[in-house]
Write a structure and sequence with these properties.
Layout: E1 2-7, H1 12-24, E2 28-34, E3 54-58, H2 64-73, E4 78-81, H3 88-93, H4 96-116, E5 120-126, H5 150-169, E6 173-178, E7 180-182, H6 191-200, E8 205-208, E9 214-219, H7 220-233, E10 239-242, E11 247-249, H8 250-261, E12 268-271, H9 286-292, H10 300-313, H11 315-322, H12 325-334
Parallel strand pairs: 1-2, 1-4, 2-3, 4-5, 5-6, 6-10, 7-9, 8-12
Antiparallel strand pairs: 9-11
The structure holds nicotinamide-adenine-dinucleotide and 2'deoxy-thymidine-5'-diphospho-alpha-D-glucose.
């Protein structure tokens, strides 16, 4: 048996990753450490909760005493760090928790893992650390870091700590940087699940500015396969980019969602642009393809239809995660009530 500590395993990508890891590796045990912030939900793991290879600890990756005692109690072979504050708009409203978790939390984990001699540490990061592209070009692993939002700056801070620990201490860290994910269990503050949920409720879809900004979409299952490949076949000290080779402008994505949902384009509402809004992201993932024998598999049309079906079938999940804290955030962000 090998043991993998997954942090942030109750969030969108972390929960999809734990499901994949347990299915792919029958001799792997998973410890899930998650603070259960507004974005973390044990319900995301309900179907595998009873597995005797999965255990859960509620806690903060920035809590040094807790992290050290967890690693002392159960020796772990590898760590995959998903735990983060992940939403750009929230980082513009308040960057404090972003620095605490994404920078200081990463440092606490690195220290504890170094002391315990963990064999692998995968830092799950984002293409947003590279900044914004013009109409052409792709982000490669050599693109200089140029983060523009408090979120991406905090992720770049975490990445730089991993890099420095690899360089200074010969620490076995690997950094992965992925483009925009979509799929089941994504919190409905991100554009795809937000617009699906709003359209299903015949509410307006708030498109920032003219909607010309471009994102490179990848299905969460493809991202998770990439992280697993980096964990098992990646070289320590290396960075691997993952992307879906699927660039779409927000307004075209919005129109496509409405078409698939059979809803009118009159639901589109152009609202004030996001401050400092990055124009375009697009990933060159040839290094991951070459070194990790990985490639994205899910075609966007198929993945998007499946995602719409998932949200239709999980209306109760959406209603539960939208209650409480989220309704206050929605009102502050969009100046309109979530339930009206
Ligand atoms: P998410 O917001 O859905 O989940 C984050 C999880 O981390 C939640 O379960 C939350 O409870 C937990 N968490 C937050 N702070 C914590 C703390 N201090 N200690 C322990 N747990 C804590 O995020 P996501 O979309 O699943 O993203 C996961 C990771 O992948 C993040 O590091 C993010 O930067 C990165 N990433 C996301 C995307 C994307 O498109 N969503 C793309 C590339 C990279
Ligand atoms: O690129 C990877 C990143 O993708 C991850 O690191 C982040 O964790 C993840 O949140 C995501 O960041 P984005 O800011 O690109 O995702 P979001 O879904 O918030 O926005 C996608 C695009 O849609 C962006 O151009 C802003 C726009 N948008 C978003 C929202 C929430 C709107 O037009 N209206 C909205 O209400």
């Amino acid at each position: 048996m090998t043991t993998v500590l997954v942090t942030g395993g109750c969030g969108f990508i972390g929960s999809n990753f734990i499901r994949l890891l347990l299915a792919e590796e029958p001799a792997t045990r998973v410890l899930n450490l998650d603070a259960l912030t507004y974005a973390g939900n044990l319900e995301n793991l309900a179907d595998i909760q009873t597995s005797d290879r999965l255990s859960f600890t509620r806690g903060d990756i920035g809590d040094r005493a807790l992290v050290e005692s967890l690693l002392a109690e159960t020796p772990v072979d590898a760590v995959v760090n998903f735990a983060a504050e992940s939403h750009v708009d929230r980082s513009i409203l308040d960057s404090d928790p972003f620095v605490r978790t994404n920078v200081v939390g990463t440092q606490v984990l690195l220290d504890a893992c170094r002391r315990r001699g963990v064999d692998r540490f995968v830092q799950v990061s984002t293409d947003e650390v590279y900044g914004s592209l013009g109409e052409t070009g792709l982000f490669t692993e050599e693109t200089p870091l140029s983060p523009n939002s408090p979120y991406s700056a905090s992720k770049a801070g975490g990445d730089l700590l991993v890099r420095a620990y690899c360089h200074t201490f010969d620490f076995p860290g690997i950094i992965t940087r992925c483009s925009n994910n979509y799929g089941p269990y994504q919190f409905p503050e991100k554009i795809i699940p937000l617009f699906i949920a709003n359209a299903l409720a015949d509410k307006s879809l708030p498109v920032y500015g003219q909607g010309r900004n471009v994102r490179d979409w990848i299905h969460v299952s493809d991202h998770c396969r990439g992280i697993l490949a980096a964990l098992r076949r990646g070289r320590p000290g290396e960075i691997y980019n993952f992307g879906g080779r699927c660039e779409i402008a927000n307004i075209d994505l919005t129109r496509e969602l409405l078409r698939l949902l059979g809803k009118p384009e009159s639901l589109i509402r152009h609202v004030a642009d996001r401050p400092g809004h990055d124009m375009r992201y697009a990933i060159d993932c040839t290094k991951a393809e070459r070194e990790l024998s990985w490639a994205p598999r899910v075609a966007f049309a198929e993945g998007l239809s499946q995602t719409i079906d998932w949200y239709r079938e999980h209306a109760d999940w959406v209603a539960r995660v939208q209650s409480g804290e989220y309704s206050k955030y929605y009102e502050r962000q969009y100046g309109t009530r979530l339930k009206s």
